[in-house]
Write a structure and sequence with these properties.
By secondary structure, the chain is α/β, with parallel strands linked by helices. The chain is built from 12 helices and 24 strands.
C-alpha cells in the first residue's frame, strides 16, 4: 500500500516546526514527508541584523535541518513556484533551474513572505534588503566598502559625504535593529580609520508611520526612539522615500540625503506562490484560512505563517488575524502537523489559539527594549531578555554554541572591519536575491498539470 505523501513548502519557523512535529508523531510507515526549500537550513531571521553588523557569522543563524536524530524527511532542494490544488500538484523550481511537478496527498503551505516594495523610482536598482542570509552578508561587505572608499576619498568631497550617508527605511523590528546594529559598527570603525571622523557618518531611519514599532506601546516605542536619537541616528517619521539615486535619496518631504546605502525594510508581503492557488486572499494578500489552518476549497491543504491570515482567536476575534511573527509561526507549525496527523487518522482537528507572550528588541551594546509577558523593560535588562530569548529559541546545540561564542568574542575583542568579497561582482540590490519573477501564473500551473494528465 502506497504511503500518503505530505508536502511541506518552506523551511522557516512554521515549516520546520511542522516537519519536526510530523517526524515525532508519525511512524515511518504512516506517511512520506517531503520538505521544499532552496537551502538545507532554517534561517533564524531575528538575528539577521547581527550578521549584517558582523557580531554573528552567517553560519551561526543558518540552523541545519539535518541534525535531528529523527531526520527522515526528504528535502527537495528548490522553491515552490505554483500549486494546483485540484490536481494536488505542486510545481517546484529546483536549484538547477529545472521544473518538477510534485504530486501530494496533504499540503502544508508555509512559504513565508517577501520584501514589500513600491513603485518608487530607483528603489529596485539602489535599495538593499534584509530578508535573506545573502542580503545580510552583502550588506556588511557593502557598508565596510563604503568606509574603505570614504577613507581614501578627498576630505570634504561629495563622494565622501555620500559614502558615509546611510538610510534605513522601515521603523519596524527589522529596520530599527538593522539601523541600531550597523550604526554601532560604523561609529566603532572610526578608531580604525584615522582619516574618518564620527561627525561625518550620518544615519537616518525613515518610516511613514507616526510611531516607531507601535506594537511595543507608547512608552517603549518612545524609549527606543530616545536610544536611537541619543546615538545620533536621525529618525524621521511620517515620511518615506520619493526617489532613490546612486548617490542620494530624496524623501517625500523634499529633503535630499547624500547616500550610497539605502536599506529597505518597509514591511513584507505574502509569498507570490499564494497567487497561484486561485483561492481567497485577505486584503493583505495573505491566504484566508480557517481557525484549524485549512485552506477553504483546497482539499488536503493547510496554510500558516507569514503567508496565511490565521484568525487570532486569543486576540478577541472580531476578524483579527495573527501578526506575522516567529512566535506565532512556530506554534502554528505544530498545530498544522497535529491536524495533518488527525486527518490521516480520522480524528478531530483543533483550532490554533495562542496568546502573544511579548516582544523583544535588541538595539546592540547594552541597549534594548522588551515586553515579556506584558512587563516593560529597557536598557540592560531588556537586552538580556532579548538575547536570552533568541538564544533559547535556537533549535540545535551547535547553533546555540556558535551564537554564544560569537557574542562573547565580540564583547571581548570588538568588531573587525573586513570585506569578504561577496559583493565584488554583484551589486546586491533588492532585485538580486528574492527571485520574485520566478513564479508561474495560475494559468501556467493549470496548463502544466493538465499536460501531465492530472
Amino acid at each position: 500500500m502506497t504511503r500518503p505523501r505530505i508536502l511541506v513548502v518552506g523551511a522557516g519557523f512554521a515549516g520546520v516546526a511542522c516537519v519536526r512535529r510530523l517526524e515525532r508523531t508519525l511512524s515511518p510507515g504512516e506517511a512520506e514527508i517531503l520538505l521544499v526549500t532552496p537551502f538545507s537550513y532554517q534561517l533564524y531571521l531575528p538575528l539577521l541584523p547581527q550578521v549584517a553588523s558582523g557580531v554573528l557569522t552567517p553560519q551561526s543563524v543558518a540552523v541545519s535541518l539535518r541534525r535531528s536524530r529523527r531526520h527522515r524527511t526528504r528535502i527537495v532542494p528548490g522553491g515552490a513556484v505554483g500549486v494546483d490544488t485540484r490536481a494536488k500538484v505542486c510545481v517546484i523550481r529546483k536549484i538547477t533551474g529545472e521544473l518538477l511537478d510534485q504530486p501530494y496527498d496533504h499540503l502544508v503551505l508555509a512559504p513565508g513572505s517577501v520584501t514589500r516594495t513600491f513603485d518608487i523610482p530607483g528603489l529596485a536598482e539602489h535599495g538593499r534588503g534584509m530578508k535573506t542570509l545573502a542580503e545580510a552578508a552583502h550588506l556588511r561587505d557593502h557598508v565596510t566598502a563604503q568606509l574603505d572608499l570614504a577613507d581614501a576619498a578627498a576630505p570634504d568631497s561629495a563622494e565622501r559625504a555620500s559614502r558615509l550617508g546611510f538610510v534605513v527605511v522601515g521603523g519596524g523590528y527589522a529596520g530599527t535593529e538593522t539601523a541600531a546594529s550597523l550604526e554601532r559598527l560604523t561609529k566603532n570603525a572610526v578608531s580604525r580609520y584615522p582619516r574618518l571622523e564620527r561627525r561625518e557618518i550620518t544615519w537616518h531611519l525613515v518610516d511613514v508611520a507616526p510611531k516607531l514599532m507601535p506594537e511595543l506601546g507608547d512608552r517603549l516605542s518612545r524609549a527606543a526612539l530616545d536610544v536611537l536619537r541619543h546615538r545620533g541616528i536621525e529618525v524621521s517619521l511620517g515620511v518615506s522615500v520619493a526617489k532613490a539615486g546612486p548617490e542620494d535619496v530624496t524623501l517625500t518631504d523634499g529633503r535630499v540625503l547624500p547616500c550610497r546605502t539605502l536599506v529597505w525594510t518597509a514591511g513584507v508581503a505574502a509569498s507570490p506562490l499564494i497567487a497561484t492557488l486561485g483561492t481567497e486572499t485577505a486584503k493583505s494578500g495573505r491566504l484566508v484560512v480557517t481557525p484549524d489552518l485549512r485552506v477553504p476549497g483546497a482539499d488536503g491543504a493547510f496554510a500558516l505563517g507569514d503567508a496565511a491570515a490565521v484568525p487570532d482567536l486569543a486576540g478577541g476575534g472580531d476578524g483579527a488575524v495573527c501578526p506575522p511573527t516567529a512566535q506565532h509561526a512556530e506554534r502554528q507549525g505544530k498545530v498544522a502537523a497535529d491536524n495533518v496527523v488527525a486527518t490521516l487518522r480520522g480524528t478531530p482537528l483543533r483550532s490554533y489559539v495562542h496568546k502573544d507572550l511579548g516582544l523583544v528588541v535588541d538595539l546592540g551594546g547594552r541597549d534594548g527594549v522588551s515586553r515579556p509577558l506584558g512587563i516593560d523593560l529597557r536598557g540592560m535588562p531588556a537586552q538580556a531578555v532579548a538575547r536570552g530569548y533568541h538564544w533559547a529559541a535556537l533549535r540545535t546545540g551547535a547553533a546555540k554554541t556558535r551564537v554564544m561564542t560569537n557574542w562573547l568574542l565580540n564583547a571581548v575583542a570588538g568588531d573587525d572591519f573586513v570585506r569578504t568579497g561577496f559583493q565584488t561582482y554583484k551589486p546586491g540590490t533588492l532585485r538580486d536575491f528574492e527571485y520574485a519573477d520566478q513564479y508561474l501564473t495560475a494559468e501556467q500551473v493549470r496548463a502544466r498539470t493538465a499536460g501531465d494528465g492530472a
